[in-house]
Design brief:
The protein has helices spanning about 15-20, 35-45, 65-70, 85-95, 135-140, 160-175, and strands spanning about 25-30, 50-55, 80-85, 100-105, 110, 125, 145. By secondary structure, the protein is of the alpha/beta class. Strand 2 (about 50-55), helix 3 and strand 3 form a beta-alpha-beta unit. The longest helix is centred in the last third of the chain and has 17 residues, at about 160-175. It starts with 13 loop residues before the first helix and ends with a helix. The mean pLDDT is about 95.
Length: about 180
């Protein structure tokens, strides 16, 4: 077994990325404080050809030196928009036919391992503030909530870790339809 060289990884150019068919997943970040978390979400979104990121509320936007530290150029590939109001973003996506799910611990949430993706459907995933999570107002208007099962004592994960887990799982489910 040999570690691959960077030249062997068949990386897309920025233009190739922009032209590539995207995974029908949209990420919505609402009131994310950490610039490093934002950058990490961009990097994960690049890795899985995510369609778009919506940066809402106080969530910072590129260009930003601290976001760039973890995004490593993904802010140049992944399409993004900033909106003050997450509710408007969710409502607009729903009108377009996108299924919107908050990633949160709530009554009657669907555990991620039990969530079933549907063919020819686009999904938006709402991730909330590091301390307060997804707002109750946003949760109320989503199609549902998805919870990452957690068995330890903490019952919370870093936003960038949560995004990676949920995107990987949903990506696999969509690709296997």
């Amino acid at each position: 077994m040999r570690k691959l060289e960077n030249s062997e990884l068949d990386r897309k150019s920025i233009e190739d990325f922009k032209q590539a068919e995207k995974t029908p997943i949209i990420i919505i970040l609402d009131d994310i404080r950490s610039l490093h978390n934002i950058g990490s979400v961009f990097r994960t979104s690049d890795a899985f050809l995510i369609e778009k990121i919506y940066l809402c509320g106080i969530t910072a936007t590129p260009p930003n030196k601290e976001i760039h530290k973890t995004a490593l150029g993904a802010t140049e590939t992944v399409t993004w928009e900033h909106h003050k109001n997450v509710i408007e973003v969710i409502e607009n996506l729903k009108k377009e036919g996108t299924s919107v799910y908050a990633i949160e611990q709530v009554e009657n949430a669907i555990f991620l391992n039990d969530f079933k993706a549907e063919k020819n459907k686009k999904y938006a995933l709402v991730f909330g503030n590091e301390v307060f999570g997804v707002s109750q107002e946003a949760i109320k208007i989503c199609h549902g909530t998805i919870e990452i099962p957690q068995l330890g004592t903490k019952h919370s994960l870093n936003i960038s870790v949560s995004t990676g887990i949920v995107v990987w799982d949903l990506f696999q489910k969509i690709k296997n339809l």
